[in-house]
Amino acid sequence: MKKISSILYAFRYKIFAAAFWLLFWQVLSMAVNKSILLASPATTIIAFVNLVYKTVFWKSVLFSFIKIMAGFIIAVGIGILFAILAWRFLVIKELITPFMKVIQATPVASFIILALLWIPSKNLSILTSFLMTVPVIYTNVLQGILSTDEKLLEMAKVFRISSLRKARYLYIPAVAPYFFTASTVGLGLCWKAGIAAEVIAIPKNSIGEQLYTAKLYLMTGELFAWTFVIIVVSVVTEKLFTAALARLLKAVT
Amino acid sequence: MSILVKDITKYYNNVPVLKGCTLELKEEKITCIMGPSGSGKTTLLRILMGLTQADSGLIEGLDKKRITAVFQEDRLCGYLDSITNIKLVCRKELGIERIQVELEAVGLADIQNKKVSHLSGGMKRRVAIVRAMLADNDIIVMDEPFKGLDEQLKCQVIEYVKQKSMGKTVVIVTHDKKEVEQLEAELVYLNSSQ
User: Fold this and answer.
1) DSSP characters for A180-221?
2) What is the least distance, in Å, from the CA of A88 to any CA of chain B?
3) What is the pTM of this model?
4) B70 and which of A99, B15, B54, B145 could share a cystine (Cβ 3.0–4.6 Å)?
5) Domain A41-252: assigned CATH number
6) A93 to chain B, closest Cα gap in Å
7) Which residues have a Cβ under 8 Å from the Cβ of A220 and sit 6 or more positions away?
């Protein structure tokens, strides 16, 4: 009992914030008084519980998770590779950087509509996630490499430290904070853009298809429930990824 | 073979930092370089280490020689412990026990698990000195290596450097004549714009 109350005390501000916003939501839904426009917290919870028992729920979550994370992981690999090449070869930096800026500036919807002409709808979220993440990873990793302490690099030159050791003990620790930030931002963008792509392309058994169906039949409770699911999956993925990254970094350095 | 510095000139923004500098650093001896601030001592060391190119002149005796250094700033990786900092520049075969013995010789027992960023300035200095001594070298370059050490510790560390640098060519920038005497070193004086 004492442990529970001490945990509650430790998280008192977070609990207060959650309770405040739930209450705000509830009051707002009562004020609007039209569940089609704004479902209440209770309606959303009921819709969520009903969803969880259905096989299609888990299939859809798994489908979207695999596609979006595939896009993210490919973006991480390509982003890091391009950043290293851009740091090493000025001509590559001059070629790639404008391309990355164009991707960053282009609206997601433009990508999605164009990409529908090129690739099957079931893979659209991979491409969209990739395009949203790769400029963020590239820019931040390049910045991290360039921020490596010049004095340490001079020391490495004098002491004839091998490239592998320089990478492990000088460059990776310098890049790590930039990469952490980029990954967190990139994951958030991935989920937003990936789900948006699925809502437009409507691939079978995806979260996007479920959202589209809920919107079509004005099932606002389900719509909110799916939104809640997307947020939870996105946050959990981010936490797991950054925890795994922290462990990897500790092992490497 | 001694290191012969012949007529080295270096300008920064059209201002001569070294002008026609000529001196000899005797083989397997310790040479101390003294001079006023701005006389180009650090610049000369940077040229010896290959970090800066001279604008004119010649240095003989550096071919295929391995250089290690103690910089004016410690240039240690703060996020690593002292042993990892040292292992980073040494051969893989160098054991942790050997490093610990060397650290104890300069008064640094029981710090191996601490990150370097948590060490005092004097401790970092000594780690940097041990690093320079343990890495494979023929020439050791040191820029004010004993700065920040109290007198007692300084004596201990100077004795350590004397012992470990036997058979090596050592160049030390210093402002303290007592250090020169204790090191039993040759002394070279750099004037401004020499």
Assistant:
1) HHHHHHHHHHHHHHHHHHHHHH--TTSHHHHHHHHHHTT-HH
2) 20
3) 0.87
4) B145
5) 1.10.3720.10
6) 26
7) A35, A36, A37, A38, A39, A43, A214
